[in-house]
Amino acid sequence: MQTFGQQLINGLSLGSIYALLALGYTMVYGIIKLINFAHGDIYMLGAFWGYYSISYFHFNFWLALFSAMVVCAIIGVVIEYFAYRPLRHSARITALITAIGVSFLLENGMSYLVGANARSFPQAIRVVTYHWLGLRVSNIQLLILGTACALMILLEVIIKRTKMGKAMRAVSVDPEAAQLVGINLNQTISFTFALGSAMAGAAGVLIGLYYNSIDPLMGMTPGIKAFVAAVIGGIGSVPGASLGGFIIGLLETAVQAVGLSAYKDAVVYFVLIVILLVLPAGIFGKRTREKV
Amino acid sequence: MLNVKDLVVNYGAIQAVKRVSFNVQQGEIVTLIGANGAGKSTLLHTISGLMRPASGSITYLDQPIQKLAAPKIVRAGISQVPEGRHVFPGLSVQENLQMGAFLRQDHAAVSQAFEEVYTYFPILKKRRHQDAATLSGGEQQMLAMGRALMAKPKLMLLDEPSMGLAPLFISEIFDIIQAIHQAGTTVLLIEQNAKQALKVADRGYVLASGQVKLSGTGAELLATPAVQQAYLGG
Question: What ipTM describes this predicted complex?
Fold first, then answer.
């Protein structure tokens, strides 16, 4: 029971990071039907921004988190503008391959600029471990879980309540009709990239704090796992991405807890295969509906 | 008000609109009738800025608009009710209407527009918190019209508003089109339902294979044997 509780907490904090990343995948897919494979690398850039801003500018944790979100939002918008916008009317496969190219560019560009070696993330917050009912919970875990949940709620409010959020939903269901009411497609798509990339930036700073180690290739595996999370939740669905993230985090932790650490990635991909076979639209995926 | 001159629009490899000219004067209801594939929807999409003409011009209030992007055309006062309603599923009725006022900043005027729309379509007020996808076809048509009205257009483009609707709904929709027109909005109406359209229209144009074949007042066209034969079933 104790082990179970312990793993549950570990799984939830890891899962909340996958959830933040998965949100970006699902929102971008929802609006332009592109699987943005460079998304994991935005998370890497967020971690590096956190690293430099804390080490060299002496930002505190909150300022590092907030500035990483802003910087990543800008990078996301710039990438969309230069890499994806010119391909708006091309085949989907063209944009997909471009996304992979952008991913390579960011990974190798960073390796070239800052070096490929891993470095330890500065301790922006002193680790305090609480002992409750035999469970060990660090303040970092609580911080990650709390921050991630707060950001997800904020995102939900933006999408559901604000004018731009409603415009995003309108564009994702019917871009042509959205233009006929005066919604600017490009602005709305930029806004979506900004939101998704800001979430990835936040996830990058949080993971730096959690694992203490960052390197230019750190975005690859979490990026793919977050994509799996988005698929499990139903790609295009925002609550689905959050739920999928938590499922992957818990699953991965559970696999490690039973002593199969070597297979933790394999299990995630196995789940992806099973989901695609039995529930291709994901948990919250919409069956396409049409009305004439 | 709207002046279309020698307009040519290509749709892929097909020339869908071939040197079409027509005009709409302020305060009129003008109808374009024609069979499926006559180029009617292409024409409206070009006016709304979703498609670009290959040649020719579209002037609105003496300004050329054929190169403007869709949001600018909405801002200038032209709103389209697209064929097949195209309401936003997943958004509530109220949110759909709110999107219609996307470009308007004046909150007082927007709430007044809500009241106006709910006066034309009381059913939408009753269903305002419902997902637009759950509405019937007729209600979705009303929502699409309400959404266009939220922008307070000077010129309203309606693309086949009666398509797929029960006869009772059709006459209601046409009554509301006339009410909207009487409240000061100029209307360009595209229809396959030629009889209904010509009855309410001041003037009409008959479009076939991308060209204007006939034009005249609504009553004249209704009495034309060619129109009767082709569109009114003899």
Answer: 0.93
